[in-house]
Amino acid sequence: MSLAQGRHYLAIPGPSVVPDRVLNAMHQPAPNIYEGALIDMVAGLIPDLKAVGRTKHSAAIYIANGHGTWEAAISNTLAAGDKVLVVASSHFALGWAGLAEKLGIKVDVIDFGKQPNFDLGCIEAALRADVNHEIKAVLTTHVDTSTSYKTDIAALRGVIDAADHPALFMVDCIASLGCDRFEMDEWGVDLMITACQKGLMTPPGMGFVFFNEKAATARKKLDRVSPYWDWSDRIEPEIFSNYFFGTAPTHHLLGLREALNMINEEGLEQVWDRHKRLSVAVHAAVDAWGQGEGAMRLNIADPAERSSAVTSVRIGAPDGTRLRKWVTDNAGVTLGIGLGMAASNDPAWHGFFRIGHMGHVNAQMVLGVLGSIDTALKALDIPHGPNAMAKATQSLSLGAFTSG
Fold it and tell me: What is the pTM of this model?
């Protein structure tokens, strides 16, 4: 008998759970887009967005998903024929590289694979070898949603500086913003992109590009930028519609305003710490399930390199798919597929899954997901180590963590 009735829990790494407060804020008639409350609200929304991005610089809003912000970032800073260096921790950095190539950018990729561990010396050597400074930008992801690897952004900035290289430093924070600590200005990031549907807890549909004066100068040197992607009018709009190059995404803005209110009320440092503590509980459970005859393993071995937003898990085919199907059918939980870990027509594809723990999540939600997985392992007779739930709950009771 299925016990999946009730509110279904989408425990994937985005779109994340939308809080009732956000849904309720969106549940109203369409507002006036020419004057009044919406216009005033958006003017106050921009500073709060920049506060979450930890920057004093500029922020542009796009009606787009994260892939759209990839294009906006490229279109405003680079011209066809320019070269970039992409430092990849698998699927999404490679996706950004592929998009850049389609826009006529020359792309060099250092791909550290599906269980990445960045070799900073290798990156520095590539930059030092570029004696003519043909590389105009270094692109990377803060957290790759497929592998759950968290890049040490400050260390990568240090490598660029050590090589005395003038390239723009551009970072994809789609999976991490509002979940993992990120310090745009302090860490020397020139451009950062994100989207609204993960740590910002709003239904998919808006993307954001944050950029400093160095990136703005790169834009001014370009002869032509696609009118839609051009950020110039968006950051200093003469009229309200210029924020969005047309009609505003009214209800998404209403939802985002409430999501930012929630972040402000909790405090960003506490938001980071909450995500850190909940992720440690997930990691403790997976480690316990992998003991003895258990085949389950965290994709990222080093705790310092694990994201607080998503956990990528290896279990071996076909048990990843079997487990995901069981928890959906019997417990009302949807886990993430092992995106990019193997080709979809490869039997190995069925040996992975991901647990999303980003945005509007608390202890009972995460423990409910872990309890559902624990039950599925028993119901499916998948070998696993004992005491996973005890390890998870113990990790939550150990006291305060510091985000990192």
Answer: 0.95
